[in-house]
Amino acid sequence: MVEVFHLKVIDCVSKINTGGKYDSKAFKKSIGLNGVGTKAVNALSDYFRVQSVRDGQTKVVEFKKGEVILEEEVQETSVRKGTRVSFIPDESIFNNFRYVNEYVEKMMWHYAYLNKGLTMLYNGEKFYSENGLYDLLNNQIEEGTSHYPVIHLKGEDIEIAMTHMRNQYGESYHSFVNGQHTTMGGTHQTAFREAVVKTIREFYGKNYEASDIRQSINAAISIKVIEPVFESQTKTKLGSTDMGPNMSTVRTFVNDFVKSKLDNYLHKNPQAADALQKKYC
């Protein structure tokens, strides 16, 4: 066990196709399988340190530009399981590098919204969300600027928050897949846009124009897909058409969820339903 632990810690951060996700169902709904990002950071760092804690044991390895410079023996520990990574970029490659705090803070907030109850700290600032995507939208909205309170819908492998704005003309979306911010959207966002139109038409029994229904919408959608396919390595747009092998399509999954949950919400919340309909009148 100790020998395997020795090898795995090093391999997972320095050798391609050695990610810990290949044979584990627990990681099928993740972003990547082989950890290329971690290995690239290691190779491009003047200093890279990884500490892994598992089954009461901890292992620390340090690298310089991808090469091992220090390998500590496995030690007993009372620390809970997890992984800690520290690195300093190689200035011969990244000359005068600096971190863009605004970008990092935005990412931290997204991780907080997608993992409600998780507390993260960055430069002394706390990032925490109690209500997931509901908080993402609600924290952006000033009082009196939405037609109705944020609608928050949750299910297995999917979460949606939405409202319509008084001070916005176009459409605004925040979409995520397995925790990845898909800034360019993709099949899940397309399915949601379609599902909202279909559900609202059926609920009110009116053939409203799709553009009118979606006009001024502000929404967030997050889904979990088994082994997702993205349209580029930057993973900003979901290309998967299915939720996973031998599973329903992304379109069907999202449409069925929105049809059921949004329709039910509008029936149970007539004030929100009335406010939404007045937007089209």
Report on the architecture of this protein.
This protein has 281 residues and is of the alpha+beta class. The protein has 2 domains: 2-89, Histidine kinase-like ATPase, C-terminal domain (Heat Shock Protein 90), CATH 3.30.565.10; 133-278, Ribosomal Protein S5, domain 2 (2-Layer Sandwich). The chain contains 8 helices and 12 strands. Strands 1, 2, 3, 4 and 5 form a 5-stranded antiparallel sheet that branches. β2 (57-64) and β3 form a beta hairpin. The radius of gyration is 22 Å and the shape is elongated. The model has no long low-confidence stretch (mean pLDDT 91).
Quick summary of this structure?
The chain is an alpha+beta fold and about 280 residues long. Helix content is about 35%, strand content about 25%.
Quick tags:
281 residues; alpha+beta; Heat Shock Protein 90; Ribosomal Protein S5, domain 2; 2 domains; five-stranded antiparallel sheet; five-stranded mixed sheet; 8 helices; 12 strands; 33% helix; 23% strand; elongated
